[in-house]
Structures are given as C-alpha cells and as structure tokens.
Amino acid sequence: MEEKKWKIGDSEELIRVQEISKTFHLSAKQQKLEHSTAKTKIAVNQVSFCVNRGEVFGLLGPNGAGKTTTLRMLATLIRPDSGDAVLSGSSVVTQPEEVRRKIGFLTSELKLEDFFTPDYLYDFFSELYGIPTDRRDTRKRMLFARFGIQEFAQVRVRDLSTGMKQKVSLVISLVQDPEIIIFDEPTNGLDILTAKVVTDFLLDLKEQGKTIIISTHIFSLVEKICDRVGIIINGRMVACEDLRTLCGDKSLEDRFFEIYEAVNGEDENHDK
Ligand SMILES: Nc1ncnc2c1ncn2[C@@H]1O[C@H](COP(=O)(O)OP(=O)(O)OP(=O)(O)O)[C@@H](O)[C@H]1O
C-alpha cells in the first residue's frame, strides 16, 4: 500500500496527530494525590500537531500536563479514546504494529530486567526486530562505544549506575535504527555529564535526518535541539510553533511563563 504523505512547502510531513484525547478513571488513592473528588481525569484533551521529516519537536509542559500520556499514545502503549495519530503513514489506532516497527521509544521510567547484561538485552531486542547478526553486531559496537558501554557490556543491569542504565535503555530503544524517535524526558534524573552525552547524541540523530519528538521541562534542552515546540497545559495544546516564531525576542522560559499565566488566568475565569 502506498504510504500517505503530506507536503508543506519543501518539507514532508511525517507525523500528524489529530485531536487525540485520553481520560483516566481515578482510584480513591489517585483522587487523594490529585486533590480532587472527580472520578475521572482528562489527561489529554484533543491534542493536534504535525512534525516534518528531519524535525525535532519538543513537547513542553509542567508536571501532570499530559506529555507522557500523549507520547505513550504515539508509541502505541495506550490507545486514544478518540482522535488518531499517523506516523510515517501508519495509524496508531488501526496499525499499531506497523507504528511500532517505525519508532524507537524511550522513557526515563523504562525498567531493564536486573538479571541480564547490556550485551544480552541488546541482542534480545535486536532479535525481536529480526535484525541480521552482522548488522546487529556492527551497530552494537558503534552504539556501545559511543556511550561507553563496552566495559559494562557483561555486567548485570542491577550492578550498573543510574546513568549507565539510562544509556543502555537509550541504546536498546534504537536497536532497529528507527526513522522516528520518541523520547519522554530523555535527560531526566541524569547527572550533567550523562545528560550532555544524551543531548549530543540527540543532535547527532538530528543531523542524520531522524525525526524526533521529545518531552521535557528543560527549556535549555528545547532551545538547543528543537525546531518546533508544542506547549501543553492541563491536557491542552496551548501553543504550537516554530521555536523562533514562538519566542520572538524573548527567551523560551519568559514566553512559557507568559503563556502559562495567560492560560491559567483563562481557566480560573472559566471556573468562576
Ligand atoms: N494510568 C493513569 N491513571 C490515572 N491517571 C493518570 C494515569 N496516567 C496519567 N494520569 C494522570 O494524567 C495527567 C497527565 O499525566 P502525564 O504523566 O501525561 O503528565 P506529564 O505532563 O507527563 O507530567 P510529568 O512531567 O510529571 O511526567 C496527570 O494528572 C496524571 O496523574
């Protein structure tokens, strides 16, 4: 089947997210945590955005805004209640297996099995993707060298540092050399040295022409690597623009707080 593609000027649209929404039922414990008596929470509310091939798109927002839920729907880990997203011609709703073959997904919450070694896990995930042994070994050597994993290749995950675990997770999320990479808070919890290795790697991926969506609350990371930014607050996409257009002559941080205050003011007036 011919893949559906949209053209905007010279750029090819690779990802189109159309009004995706997700509501969760809240347990009594969650209601307590949310300081709410509501039995449901709209985590993502009709979010739409597009990403062109080769672009880095940053999803920025405060805690609980809906970033992770959005990315988990794009990665087909959870199904949208309504709306759809098409990634390189495949729908997350009707063609989730196809989507999974095209993406690499990394979350800071990814738990690697403690008992296994990076070497074993890399081979295991490569096999799941049906990658031939010679290609697997060449790529593994390159990625392990890049992240300094070689000397820990035979060390069990339980004995690795947090930073090394995160680097191993990142490498494993990319075994199949995907054209689309989705990273949920890629530098979360990392020390500054490891965070820099990850940021530099993201810049390399960008240079290679990969299409990347990252979620973060780190303004400097967005300013460094993103072409476009979506700001998500209370489950709604409240701004979505080219980084330069969004910021004008202001810093991203200043613009973010301007938008945040405007949206919160609006929501408060609405609640009255
Ligand atoms: N499985 C779930 N069950 C119930 N509520 C959930 C679930 N997952 C997320 N939520 C709620 O949905 C809202 C959005 O959460 P989400 O994790 O998507 O936000 P986020 O922007 O990624 O936040 P953070 O930056 O803290 O990771 C939050 O109020 C969260 O508590």
From TrEMBL:
What keywords are annotated for this sequence in UniProt? Answer: ATP-binding, Nucleotide-binding, Transport
Q: Which SMART domains match?
A: AAA
Q: Which domain of life is it from?
A: Bacteria
Q: Tell me, what is one Gene Ontology molecular-function annotation carried by this entry?
A: ATP binding
Domain annotation ABC transporter: ranges:
15-259
Is Transport among the key words of this record?
yes
Q: Which family does it belong to?
A: Belongs to the ABC transporter superfamily.
Which named protein is this? ABC transporter ATP-binding protein
Q: What is the lineage of its organism?
A: Bacteria, Bacillati, Bacillota, Clostridia, Lachnospirales
